[in-house]
Amino acid sequence: MSTVYISLGSNIQREYHIHAAIAELKKISSASRISRLFEAEPVGFNGPNFFNCVVEIETSLSFDTLQQTLKKLEVQYGRSPNAQKNQSRTLDLDILLFGDVCRDSAPVLPRSDIYKFAFVLWPLTELCPDRVIPGDDRTVAQLWQSFEHSQALWPVEIAVTV
Fold this sequence. Notes:
Elements: E1 2-10, H1 14-28, E2 30-34, E3 38-40, E4 50-59, H2 63-76, E5 92-98, H3 113-116, H4 118-127, H5 140-145, E6 153-155
Antiparallel strand pairs: 1-4, 1-5, 2-4, 3-4, 3-6
């Protein structure tokens, strides 16, 4: 079993798609914990605000199988298979950490979004502050402490459970 952290995001029917993604993750894994839900302004384009969170799961699936499954879920819930970056989306599911795996080929692990986006790092910090990032000597909490907090992001009071 591998401990995996997955970022969930949606800015189209946000609450519905976040809840649907969590329900789907329960079907394919032992979904064990979820961060609070955050609302964030879009980065790189104008559009509706996103809901974002991070889910920790335990899975026996291989990285490639899990990645393919997540991409199928995105399409199942209305995301175009040819979706571009920096546009609105029904569902965005990204593997941030997969056990202690490091990958240099796409998709890269740990996912670079951990270092770039508050909507990824703040929820990840809630779940595993003492986790050392594979290939990096720093913990998630240390990354958050040194992070440039310029992105508009705030917790929302919508219950999400696993």
